[in-house]
Amino acid sequence: MAVSISGSLSSQSTVAPPSPAESTPTEVVHRPVSAIGDTVKLSQAAQVHQLKQQGQALSQIASNLGIPVATVDGYLGVTVAKAALVAPAGSTVKAAPVPTKG
User: Fold this and answer.
1) Smallest Cα–Cα separation from 43: which of 79, 21, 75, 10?
2) Residue ranges of region Disordered (predicted)?
3) Distance (Å, whole) CA 6 – CA 20
């Protein structure tokens, strides 16, 4: 039994890549490039300012961020007068009697 091995690869058929004239056009799809790690995390204060600028109420902002309304007020520089110290317009406030020693 004789075995012969040829050094040429002519026995295998080779397929040439199609020429540009023979190839069909491919559709190019443009997608935004978003690399992992290209995110920005805003601080709570910045989120509060952004949501306020978008027109959300203070209570909505507090609810969305899971923080107290007083914290939202603080971030926005809102000062809330204490109800016990401020009397409604047109009302009179009477001073409490001072106890005397007897």
Assistant:
1) 75
2) 1-31
3) 34
Count the residues in the chain.
Answer: 102
Q: Which amino acid, residue 14?
A: T
Return d(Cα 54, Cα 48) in angstroms, integer: 10
Q: What is the pLDDT of residue 71?
A: 94
Phi and psi torsions of 24, nearest 5°: -90, 145
The residue type found at 39 is T
Express each pLDDT in 26-66 by its tens digit.
677 776 666 677 788 899 999 999 999 999 999 999 999 99
**pTM exceeds cut of 0.85:** no
Rounded distance, CA 97 to CA 102, Å? 14
Q: Where are the beta strands (DSSP E) in the chain?
A: none
Count CB neighbours of 61 within 10 A. 23
